[in-house]
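Entry type: protein chain
Record version: 2
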Amino acid sequence: MILTDAPNASIIEVTTSRDRVVGRGPLFKFIGSDKALKEKISTKRRTFKTGLEMKEKGENTMKFLDGIDNAVTRRLAKELKLLVKMTKARSRKEIATLPEDEARKLLTKLLTDIQKVEKPFRREMIRFHLRVDEEERRTPKTRPTKRRKVPALEWAGAYDVYAPKLSEEHQEARKILSLETGPSSTASQLWASFDFGVVQGILRSFNPPPKAVGDKAYFLWRGKIKGDMKFGDENIGVITFLGDGKIQGSMDGAGFNKFNFFGRLKSTMTGIGDKAHLTKVTGWKGQWRGINASLRDMEMRQRHQQYSRGEIERPDSPAVSDTTAASDEEGSEDDEDEESSDGEGSDDGGR
């Protein structure tokens, strides 16, 4: 069956389940306000009256396709009726009534079939996680009493990185780049420091560190380009851990076109959970919180000699997902800051 709403369209052909042509005629067109047929449908056998005429004479509106299988007729009429009703507002209502599993299937299909929705989808997921962080931060929590030891992980350590597209577009990236990864003290997140030539900074994952080959870490990143702070919920990326010390990933945001990078483990981070490891991750967290709107504006005022000596630097507070265990005092002063802070600073305006 072929349908189109073009004014000068060709014929419509309807077949039954037995593939027998039972109706043929010029294409008809639905009128949304009347929910009926506007034009007459002509066939070789007869000319059917429009839905409006049939309604006025009290006839059954299903007779406009007389001669077609009853089952086919009912299904066609139902589909056409739904098609007319499916406005944007109606579509939103239909989405709101979808079961959770069906909604997930629909999102997965859209993400797979339509490449244009990938970036907006990732941004919305990031905004969702930021909202969850905000809600969790406002909910009182009991501090854990025992430290959860993190086992030695083969993916944690320093990587030599190569970014082909970035090196083509920026001379500063035409060298061996660097990335160093490590878990937070509770293994709830992956943190990393990177130097990609034209941009340097810190990344923080949304999900826990990888546990198996092929696991992905989705992250936000903050950094500096030629001394200017860059942050915001559009600064996103992903790292896939391929095993055997290999990684591949991509980054986006801060005016960059999306670029891919590849890396090989150069040295493994040892002593996971020990003081040296916690101190390093604490340093990365401090750098992350030091890249925000407040400090960026202060730097701009300094450049224009508008800086007040009494002005106080205000780094971001940690997100709830950053918090570490109570018995980590010997390894991370940052943990105390996390418990006493109100929340993570704004990521807006990072461009």
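Comment: The longest strand covers residues 256-268.
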